[in-house]
Amino acid sequence: MAAVSMMFGVSASSHASFTPKGIGNSSALFTSKSSFRFSSPICFQPSFWPSRRFLSRELYRVKATVIQETEDQVVIEESSPPKSSPGSGGGSNGEPPDNTSSNGLEKWVIKLEQSVNIFLTDTVIKMLDTLYHDRNYARFFVLETIARVPYFAFMSVLHMYESFGWWRRADYLKVHFAESWNEMHHLLIMEELGGNAWWFDRFLAQHIAIFYYLMTVFMYALSPRMAYHFSECVENHAFETYDKFIKAQADELMKLPAPKVAVKYYTEGDLYLFDEFQTSRLPNTRRPKIDNLYDVFVNIRDDEAEHCKTMKACQTHGSIRSPHSYLDESSEDIPECDLSQADCEGIVDCLKKSVSDSQVIRG
């Protein structure tokens, strides 16, 4: 889901990386990392595939979030920056040639975007802490109502781009729809647990969602990187919130039955969409067990970790592929990204490049 990680609890440089270990007895460790650096539009290659040749173009250093999960541990950590490809024009680590003014402006813009996101997430966190400090299920209901919003906001803008003929990102649409489907089931679980019993909670959640949708559409149209970072903040907070709840209520949760909607979503029927939003995993590699309410919240927490990783990866422009798209290809013959679909970022950038292309054609 998304609760609001920076919207609800991320460090001032939006680079907090956490390593919550275990479920009942262990504690979550938060370690500050160095500031964000974003990469160029290269194909996102999940860790389960052998490395392949990089595109012959400048590569930017990227800090991606990778989720590693064992039977009793969920770890979110940074991956190493990509190495420079032979013949690339970048530096020793794939960085672009030094352009002080350009790089300085980009760093300033990134810092501004992250500062705005941090302010917004911290503001919402304080509000939710005040209203819901002792009402967990109601808080989760509000968070899950909000959590679906960015994904269909992203899809709205991507459909608009398709109408304008700027690019078509089928994989992005599939992944974001699967993310919204996952968050919807989190919401259904909270409703079955009684989180929506009060009129005030429903009123607040629905009106926040309307404002959040409009804000996300505007933000995503201007800067997808900023919108994805904001969603990462929300998902960070969601992960942290559920992790604390699980550790505090583990004994009680193990005594309670799992909601029927959770059993059906996680264990029955076609799990295609469940696999689709987990972009660093092969399909069919995560199949949760649901024996009680404790298992339900553990899996919701782990879902939020997957969302966080995907939102981090999306900040690398043009980087996401549907996990199922790899099943139709051999590991030795994975096609390169179609850069014609990923050559502009945000409506302002697209308009600028459209004007430039028109001038080139006239010339």
From TrEMBL:
GO CC annotations, alphabetized: membrane; mitochondrion; respiratory chain complex; thylakoid
Cofactor: record remark: Binds 2 iron ions per subunit.
Gene Ontology MF annotations: alternative oxidase activity; metal ion binding; superoxide-generating NADPH oxidase activity; ubiquinol:oxygen oxidoreductase activity
Keywords: Electron transport, Iron, Membrane, Metal-binding, Oxidoreductase, Respiratory chain, Transmembrane, Transmembrane helix, Transport
Region (Disordered): 73-101
Compartments where found: Membrane
Segments of skewed composition (Low complexity): 77-86
Transmembrane residue ranges: 140-161, 203-222
Family label: Belongs to the alternative oxidase family.
Official protein name in the record: Ubiquinol oxidase
